[in-house]
Design a protein that fits this description.
11 helices, TIM Barrel, eight-stranded parallel barrel, single chain, 8 strands, 252 residues, binds phosphoenolpyruvate
Length: 252
Amino acid sequence: MTGFFCAGNWKMNKTPEQAAQFVRQLKESATAEEQKHLVLLPTALIAYEVAQGLKGSGVAWGGQNCYFENSGAFTGESSPSLMKEMGAKFCLVGHSERRQIFAEPDDMLAKKTAALQNLGMIPIVCVGETQDDRRWNRTQEVIVRQTRLALASADPSKPIWLAYEPVWAIGTGQVATPEQVEEAHGILRKALKEWSAMTSDRIPILYGGSVKAENSASLAALNNVNGFLIGGASLAVDDLLKIYRNSQTVRS
Ligand code: PEP
């Protein structure tokens, strides 16, 4: 997969009917080429509708979370192998809402990352600093540590994506400045090089945090920004496509 990607994190939104309707509209509106650069991340209970609806299209989909075991006594968890069997190509790992609300620790995220890679799926590992981290100049330390720990058992020869999502920019409307984004993505690219000099340049680094149609072109133009992870603005087909299309105006 090459190019610029937009992944829509629907979080705990949409009914099965709304998901099916979204997918129908997306397939009608996005060209075949655009479809190859879009990923939908529905909540598990509507994954079936998304998987069925996307069959035969170029749009990929993935989970928002999974466990690192494929089956067993893990009440409430989602199996990565089942997700794969349903057609998922991706799964988020360590979204800040998982880290903060559900207290997911780094060692668990490393196991999830490795488990997904072992199944041939692509983990989208999310890292990002809090407002306090930034205020106290800890951004670099935090995002490099989160990256190293999440990748501790990962295989550099297998596909993996990274998403830089400053916690203070998620769902707040407060987007990071181009300077902040470029600096953080540069730091992450360097950390990836230290992890795997051979493959680091091929690992997409997405930016996430209040991406909208209005700011997508200026963010997409930055060095080391290879795509977006989009929450709120991915819930409507028109918004998602505008973001993708605006990003293309500065990249082609
Ligand atoms: C997210 O959920 O990953 C996200 C970036 O949300 P939003 O675009 O709404 O800030």
